[in-house]
Amino acid sequence: MGPNVSLMAGGKGLSLSVAPLARPALRRLPLAADTRVQDRAWRPIYAVWELTLKCDLACHHCGSRAGRARPDELSTAECLDLVRQMAELGVMEVTVIGGEAYLHDDWIEIVRAIRQAGMRCSMTTGGRGLTEERAQAAAEAGLQSASVSLDGGEATHDRLRGVAGAHRAALQAAANLRKAGIKVAVNTQINRLSMPELSDVLETVVELGAFAWQIQLTVAMGRAADAPDMLIQPEDLLDLFPLLARLKGRCDEASVVLWPANNIGYFGPYDSTLRGSFGVGHSASCSAGCTALGIEANGAIKGCPSLQTVPWTGGNIRDASLKDIWERSAALRYMRDRTVDDLWGYCRTCYYADVCRAGCTWTGFSLFGKPGNNPLCHHRALEMRRLGKRERLVQIDRAPGEPFDNGRFEIIVEDIKP
Questions:
Q1: Which of 31, 114, 207, 300 could form a disulfide with 121, with the two C-beta atoms 3.0–4.6 Å apart?
Q2: Of the candidates 130, 131, 72, 75, which has an alpha carbon nearest to the alpha carbon of residue 97?
Q3: For 243-282, b where at least 16 C-beta lie within 10 A, e where not — what string?
Q4: Sheet of 46-50, strand order
Q5: 22 phi, psi to nearest 5 deg
Q6: Which of 138, 127, 144 is CA-nearest to residue 55?
């Protein structure tokens, strides 16, 4: 693999704009008149909650373009009421994120309320300002685990995170968390900068004493859409998945749980190796609005925290109850209702179409502005190679520069040169 990415050359030709101010929340969205049986059957086991969009990093792969707080973020009283509603709806675990969750003035109070409501509470963080004092306060409030972001060695990580010293700060944050008695995990974005350094990242994970390593492909949303050469191409998956299989062996040896995110897939020869110890033991379809719930800091409710605000917001907690939004909004019903007939392109014809249903909705929508087709699939890349072909993603429209935005790509199918 020989990526030609300007960001890899120290960021020449690529600069970050000032973090944009998010638009006010979408309000008074329509809900269906009735709740269906299947909507009552699905329940959000896991919720990811953006407490604030304020951030102290400037990551080049940030899908939300985080930096500035939203103009209409929930009050602490509204947050505490939302905690109550999540518990009543059956949420079992809440992960608080940002931006940076610890930049919310009352994040400790919210963590404490989540735990007192009987739900597990975890956190995902870049760690730049996660001091000993903050870690200790989180531990006392009941925070059970925290996943610290590491996206390569020091130089690559700092370049991706947009701040010199970010890597050292992340390592210190992990140390602060462990000192406070909080279990530490690591999460890593996989792109053309970080992929060559994944083995080294894993050794850092082991050295930190982390119990888990979550990996996901960088998705073409937000700032990542501004650097398309940084993104993994379908052909890169042919090298990535054998590497991940080898790293899974190292994880097992070091008692680190390898946790592939939903857009690491699907159904290739290493699928059971990577996912054999989870659920059904192989890849599955998108869980957005089925078992997963996403919450934006201004009360917007989505089926997945990563999905674009438009069109994936189902309602706002200031307008309707969480239960009503979960059961009656079209956006959250989408994955419950998606069938093979909703797919297009290669995914419509795939052998695994009925099980996979194009995999990660976020990944496909970020590329094409519509769901139902996902070329970042190992099985698909292998089938293309078998036919002497490869797919290449080319950006044809840039992202407008707003939080949770995306550009547009097209798929070029090429013959593989001998």
A1: 114
A2: 130
A3: ebbebbebbeeeebebbbbbbbbbbbebbebbbeeeeeeb
A4: 257-260, 212-217, 183-190, 145-149, 120-125, 93-97, 46-50, 292-295, 300-302, 313-316
A5: -65, 150
A6: 127
402 pLDDT higher than 80: yes
Structure tokens at 75: 């009050």
The per-residue pLDDT for 7 is 58
Residue pair 368/375 in contact by the 8 Å Cβ criterion: no
Residue 351 exposure: Cα atoms within 13 Å on the Cβ side:
7
Q: Which pLDDT tens digit goes with each residue over 290-345?
A: 999 999 999 999 999 999 999 999 999 999 999 999 999 999 999 999 999 999 99
Element (H, E) at 207: helix 198-207
Q: Report the alpha-carbon distance of residue 135 to residue 143 in Å, rounded.
A: 9
CA dist 233 and 163 (Å) reads 26
Q: pLDDT of 106-150, one tens digit each?
A: 999 999 999 999 999 999 999 999 999 999 999 999 999 999 999
Taking the CA atoms of 79, 81, 85 and 88 in sequence, report the sign of the dihedral they define: positive
User: How would you classify the pairing of strands 46-50 and 292-295?
Assistant: parallel
Q: What is the DSSP code string of 233-265?
A: PGGGHHHHHHHHHHHHHHHHHTT-EEEE-TTS-
Q: CA 22 to CA 401: how far, in whole Å?
A: 10
| Direct distance between the N- and C-terminal alpha carbons of the chain, in angstroms, rounded to an integer | 16
Q: Measuring CA to CA, how many Å separate 89 from each of 76, 158, 234?
A: 20, 40, 39
Asked if 65 contacts 308 with a C-beta cutoff of 8 angstroms, the reply is: no
How many CB atoms within 10 Å of residue 15? Answer: 8
Tell how strand 183-190 and strand 212-217 pair up.
parallel
Cis, bond preceding 102 (omega within 30 deg of 0): no
Task: Please check whether residue 150 is in contact with residue 193, taking contact to mean a CB–CB distance below 8 angstroms.
Answer: no
Distance CA 159, CA 321 (A): 42
pLDDT tens figures, 335-373: 999 999 999 999 999 999 999 999 999 999 999 999 999
Phi, psi dihedral angles at 415 (to 5 degrees): -75, 140
